[in-house]
Amino acid sequence: MTDPTTYLSHLELGEPDKTFLDTNELIINMGPQHPATHGVLRVILKLDGEKVLGTECVIGYLHRGVEKIAENRTYTMFNPYVDRMDYVAAVSNGLGYCEAVEKLLNVEAPPRAKYIRVILTELNRLASHQLWLGTHALDIGAMTPLFYTFRDREEILKIFEKYCGARLTTHAFRIGGCQYETYEGFEQDVKKFLDFVPPRIDEYEELLTTNRIWVERTRNVGKISAADCKALGVTGPVLRASGVKWDIRKALPYAAYPEFQFEIPTGANGDTYDRYMVRMQEMRQSLRIIRQAVEGIPEGPIMAKVPKVMKPPVGEVYHSIEAPKGELGYFVVSDGSTQPYRVRVRPPSFVNLQALDVMVRGQLVADVIAVIGTLDIVLGEVDR
Amino acid sequence: MLDYITSYLGMNTTPGQAGNVFWAVVYILVVFGGVSVAVIAMNWLERKALAHFQIRLGPMRVGPHGLLQPIADAVKLLTKEDIIPHEADRFVFWIAPLIILCASFTVYIVIPFGPTHAITDLNIGILFMLGVSSLSVLGVVMAGWASNSHYPLIGSLRSSAQMISYEIAMGMAVVTAILMTSLNKSGTGTLSMIGIVQAQQQQQIWFLFKFFPLGFISFAIFAIAMVAETNRAPFDLPEAESELTAGFHTEYSGLRWSLFMLGEYTAMIAVSSIAVTLWLGGWLRPFPNTLTGETWDLVFSLIPGFTFLGLAVIAFIGVKRMPKHPYFKIQTAGLAGFGAVLGLIGILLFIPPVRDRIQDIFWFVAKVAVFMYLYIWYRATFPRYRFDQLMKVGWKVLLPIAIGVLIVTAILGVVL
Amino acid sequence: MPWESPLVAKLKAQYGSGVREANTYLGQNYLVLEPSIAREALQILRDEEEFDYCVDVTAVHYPNREKPFDLIWILYSFARNQRLRVKTMLADGESFPSSVAIWPTANWLEREVFDMFGIKFDGHPDLKRILLPDDWKGHPLRKDYGIIQQDQEWVKANLGIESGQ
Amino acid sequence: MEPVATPFFFYFLSGLTLLSGVLVITRKNPVHSALALILGLLAQAGLYLMLYAPFVAGVQIILYAGGIMVLFLFVIMLVNIERSQKEEQFNKQWLVGILSAGALGGLFVLVYTKGSGLFPAVMSLPVENNNTQQVGELLYGQYMFAFEIASLLLLVAIIGAVVMAKKRI
User: Fold this and answer.
1) Which of A284, A288, A346, A294 is nearest to A321 (CA)?
2) Complex prediction ipTM
3) Is A354 in contact with C60 (Cβ distance < 8 A)?
4) Is the peptide bond before A237 cis (omega within 30 degrees of 0)?
């Protein structure tokens, strides 16, 4: 392993406070094996006492070469691989990839398929936010929300399991639509879930929103301004919590989103508490979308006419969707053969993680943990 | 010899003061055993209650409803490999858990479970308690240093800084309560634990309600500081596993680690006992001054018996609800036996001489149990404080309020 | 399909033949610029045309071409709600001025392009590998890098196993 | 309560104090020295108890063993112990050491032989029960001025420490 000090060479680090009693700065390694780094993230911290002077993320421990794999598989064969990137929001990944290839093929999924896609993607967003909430609260020391969120996430996973047989890496969509028609009782299941979950969200909020310790631990922690967010390319709830009302579902709509009404929740301060509030409200907005989709789901085919062997015309396309973590983009280049010439994934976690350094400078070590939690990164997606 | 033993029974004082070594040893053994059992029960209760807070079942396998789980855990811990890190300072590493354990158990010498049910009564009782319990900081510091590793060292520094800071606010709150003992006709206060409860008896008021809300505020300060003092959630920074893995006892395993746990739970019970003694009237039954008279005395003296009978009934309901599969035969029988023991204790508690001697202890333990439950409740509900916020709460909020309350109490005592 | 817009007209007026293509494909606009003017054009795109969000920096390898690398920026403007792809072509071993000063987010993205394609960025504050180990040899997303190819020496030295090839 | 086995406890505690004192200066590892010092302070607290001064004993435990020594340990733990172990343990001022030790020994012998006139032959038995009250009355009555001066001194020390350790206040 390389000496951690070499990593910090390029950072313009703040100097420790010069006092009568000089203290030395301390360089410590957080991770890759650490309970609060959500996987195998390694953060090298330069500390003055407990104050963070600078950080450097060392990533790549989970690199599997997804983009290289894509060049050696056909368009259809690569579809399940994308689920392995952001494995807590696999459905969103699949949606992004399928739509990108559909765009390249110049086909459009039938309306019913689009509705099913929206329902499952929004359910997945809910599941992802619930997992985020549980682990984030656990990092800050509140044990109980974890169990509450996992209890309710279970209901979503049950719906996935009944729909396509898998709970986590669902591979729910195919290029051109959906492979499976909804099972019998799907709508009832979703509606039952819609009735059951809002009081549960209230329950999470009861534990945290007005809890003094929670507010003190999160308010003014990991602040990032809207300008910094844009400069650093940070998207998703982090950007919205800084006050930018921007959501790809509204700005550049895809799937069936133009047909639904929902709000884009925003924050004002861009601190950890605002991000928490934004995500909580997003959960409610997701429920609203799902309700509209389930009630208005049209009849019809679920698969567009796509050739068995896909040979998209030569060209390239960039398509992005609003994943739970932010803008998830696919840049697909076709050379006219059955295999994509190049697939580039624009992972939201990877780009958002870059903001960690800006967010934790001058804060305390305990805040680093809170900020890693609030960025909601999934290392499978950061490292690909 | 027999005279020596029986002579104490007639005396209305603690064995320590009576100078009766035999009974003192008996009391020490009873208290030591009782506290150990309480720690085991607390361990089970914490896992079970926490699990139910978190919509889990908690331990269910070992014994009916996991009742024997703590014993299984203890056996596991005792048989585990005892690891001492290579670079550790062996002697200090070895002695640190013992210091914590001794400090936590020594405190029980002066805790009054009843007017005569204490090992001894020192006239500096409360001072002794604070002093000895402050020694456990040493154990924490030594454990962190001896492990010769970064995370334990940071954990122990945080932990001892926290304990020392909160000791001050805690001491101020205690002084307020002690001041209240002297606010009577004769103007003589006391530091003795039994004396403090007796002062509450004479003044016909729990100090919690004295000079409302002054007594209440000082109690609240103590109740917060004692959670910090025992390093429990939401002040469990030294053990913040998301930052520091396990704090000062990261390198400990097996028996030594269990000694830390034993020390922690013992200390929790000890500080709760201080709170009960100082503010909640110690062994006094509820409403001693409003619900007076022989009838009420009788009614309250029957409550312990009924409590145990109630527990027995719950156990028997549990027996009825056990699955009827032969696999659960032993478990069902065990639970029934447990219920029968509880019921027997309940019936024993109705016998008048036993009843009168025991009910003091019952009320004391019941009040302490409320605090124990609160500890679990806090842990299930609150996130963790950050270190600077913790220090801010200790020094900038609790301490000034505690001093203010102390001054106002003193002024009121002079004026009234 | 050619893309006509004031932006293109302005760039063409300024750089002439430096703007080699301005097209729309499947409703997505892209510009192909000469490497010599690309850095300057990017600066103009952010400062004057409000493309304030750099979505992605990536590259594509065409080994049979004279200039085998496509370097691609995907930009977005919050104000216009518009996406734009900017492409430039680089020869093997040719370096390109870093755009970190324009969009800080390009820092990690350029590092990834360096890691995967070996394109060097001049003036990048900390150009080193990001996903692969620092001392890895080869750039995996080049077309001449096989899918099961590994840096055998690295695997042996660091993992203590024989490479699986 | 009548005291039990007083001479035994006196000699035991005194021996413990002396032993720990020797340990403090002979241990190579400063942390071990500090621990020995704590043991000595605790033994002294026991001696105070035997002198019917329970309040002083309690304060000794809280302040010295529980408070000051923890701060000592803090400082010792944070300095580099390896360096201190390599350093020479005793410095070369043995002449001064012998002189002062001799002077102290002479004083002890003098007091032991000639001192019978200085002290009362029989000590009056202090009342144990209101010891704390008496300490309080003395401190806030007779020695009020000295007490306040001491507290002012401590306040100055605290402020000085804060000023030295922190640049921005």
Assistant:
1) A346
2) 0.76
3) no
4) no
Rounded CA separation B334/B337 (Å): 5
Residue partners of C161: CB distance under 8 A and separation at least 6? C155
Does residue B234 have a cis bond before it (omega within 30 degrees)?
A: yes
Query: Could you give the angle at the alpha carbon of B387 between the alpha carbons of B386 and B388, nearest 5°?
Result: 100
Verify whether the Cβ–Cβ distance C134 to A2 is below 8 Å: yes
CB contacts < 8 A, A to C, total 92
User: In this structure, are residues A382 and A59 in contact, taking their beta carbons and an 8 Å threshold?
Assistant: yes
Q: Is residue C105 less than 8 Å (CB to CB) from chain A? A: yes
Q: At what angle do helices B150-181 and B254-279 cross, to 10 degrees?
A: 20
Strand C19-25 to A340-346 pairing? unpaired
Q: Which domains does chain A have, with CATH numbers?
A: 4-58 (no CATH), 66-383 (1.10.645.10)
CB distance D165–A17 less than 8 Å? no
Side-by-side strand order, sheet with A26-30: A26-30, A42-48, A51-58
Q: Answer whether D36 touches B (CB < 8 Å).
A: no
Torsions phi, psi of A42, nearest 5? -115, 125
- Rg, C-alpha atoms of chain A: 21
CB of B240 less than 8 A from some CB of A: yes
B340 vs B333: CA distance, rounded Å: 10
Q: Which chains touch B (3 or more CB pairs under 8 A)?
A: A, D
Give one DSSP letter per residue of A123-183, joined into a string.
HHHHHHHHHHHHHHHHHHT--HHHHHHHHHHHHHHHHHHHHHS-SSS---EETTEESSPPP
**What is the spatial distance between Cα B201 and Cα A190, in angstroms, rounded to a whole number?**
62
Which residue in the block uniquely carries the two structure tokens 């010439």? A341
Output the six-digit token pair for D41: 């302070």
Contact A230 C60 (CB under 8 A): no
Contacts of D164 in chain A (CB under 8 A): 20-21
The C-alpha of B180 sits at a distance from chain A's nearest C-alpha, in angstroms, of 32
Q: Which residues are CB-contacts of B397 (< 8 A; sequence separation ≥ 6)?
A: none
Q: How far is CA A267 from the centre of its chain?
A: 18
Residues of A in contact with B242 (CB under 8 A): 35-36, 138-141, 369
* CB atoms near residue B317 (< 10 Å): 10
Q: What is the pLDDT along chain B (416 residues), one digit of tens a residue?
A: 677 677 766 666 777 666 677 778 888 888 888 888 888 888 888 888 888 888 888 888 887 778 888 888 888 888 888 788 887 778 888 888 888 888 888 888 888 887 777 777 777 788 888 888 888 888 888 888 888 777 787 778 778 788 888 888 888 888 888 888 877 666 677 778 888 888 888 777 788 777 778 888 888 999 888 888 888 878 887 666 656 666 777 778 888 888 888 888 888 888 898 888 888 888 887 776 677 777 777 777 778 888 888 888 888 888 888 777 887 788 888 888 888 888 888 888 888 777 777 778 888 888 888 888 988 888 888 888 888 888 888 888 889 999 999 898 888 877 77
Contact across the interface for D167 and A21, Cβ inside 8 Å: no
Residues 6+ apart with CB under 8 A from D48: D54, D56, D57, D60
Question: Does any CB of chain B come closer than 8 Å to the CB of residue D66?
Answer: yes
According to DSSP H, which parts of B54-184 are helical?
69-79, 90-106, 125-134, 136-146, 150-181
Q: Contacts of residue A21 in chain D, CB cutoff 8 Å? A: 164-165
Interatomic CA distance for residues C91 and C110, integer angstroms: 17
Please name the residue of chain D whose CA is at the shortest distance from the CA of residue A23: D165
Q: Do chains B and D touch (3 or more CB pairs under 8 A)?
A: yes
Nearest-CA distance from D163 to chain A in Å? 9
Is D78 within 8 Å of chain A by CB?
Answer: no
